[in-house]
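Sequence only, no structure available. Ideas?
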Amino acid sequence: MPIPDPADGVQPDVVILDELSRVFGDIEPTGDADPTGDADPTGDADPTGDADPTGDADPTGDADVEPERSIISIGGDGDLPDAVHLDDQLGDDSGSSPVFIDDDGSSDALMPKDATSRGIEPRLRQRRIGVRRAASRKRLWWAAIAAVVVVIGVGVLAVLGSSWFAVDTVSVSGNVYADPDQLAAIVDDLRGTPVLLVDTEAVEEQLEAIAWVEAARVTTSFPDSASIEIRERTPVASMLGEDTRSRVLDADGRVLAVIDGQPVALVWISGEGTLDLREGDFAPIGYSSAASLVTKLTPTIRSRVESMVVSPDGSDLVLILTSPSGPIEVRFGSAIGDNAQIEKLVRLERKLVDVGDDPVSVIDVSTAEVTVR
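Reply:
I predicted one. Tokens follow.
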């Protein structure tokens, strides 16, 4: 049942107060009434009359003295922790007085109206609202900064990618035999392109598509220049094509050029039939293996090589060497494989030293057992 409030003009029942005092505190009952005894609060004693079970004062009478209120204390008698001051933690943006929480039993009694008070909740609510608003403002602030940075970055990139910073000067180095027309076309495409938009890898691929170019490196520099560095392929051999024109080959068997006549400085490679190859094409494996063998010849052997005869599949290769007594046919067998080529050249080098100026027509180094005829 609700406890009446004296401030409302209604006095609480003494029996109830005594019962609460015995349950929650150390205070002795203030009246003589016993809820289990003979006295009946609804009996002869009239709370509106002269008799009062709690004393002489009558709450409804003429007495001016207010009856003493019983104190209800909830707590223990042991050592208790100090009171915690929460005013700083709750914020100082409110005009209410500090709030203390004390459990030492000596503070004011907890009244029913205090237990139902909600005075601290608005402070906490305002604190939470303030924290949320501050976090929202902080997020908006960082979002605005990020947006400004993005806009500035886009603007800078737009300016740098404009024609104001286009490639105007292009330097080329390392080109000797590369087709000048093909090279000029690539350079012309490069000019006028914004420096930031130059695809250097794509330009390098275009340059390496030129037959003579083995590798290319393209770099750009602000505000308007680019440089091209070229490493050209080395010609090592030549062969005849179907059109009776010579194909110049490098060590990989790539056709570097198609020319008239037979180059004297290059090893001549012949084989079954002729091939129709254009600049930039690669010769069949037999011819490319023979061209690779040229790069492994020692100076002694290289100076005596007159020509090579090879099958298109590289299964049989023959070296024609010069000697005082006439040409020497060196049978290599398979021309495929770098290690195999080196082993056979070592055998040939040793056998030439052994033979000296003796007349020899055939040297077979295709197997580990070298034979001479």
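The domain at 165-232 is CATH 3.10.20.310 (Ubiquitin-like (UB roll)).
Hope that gets you unstuck.
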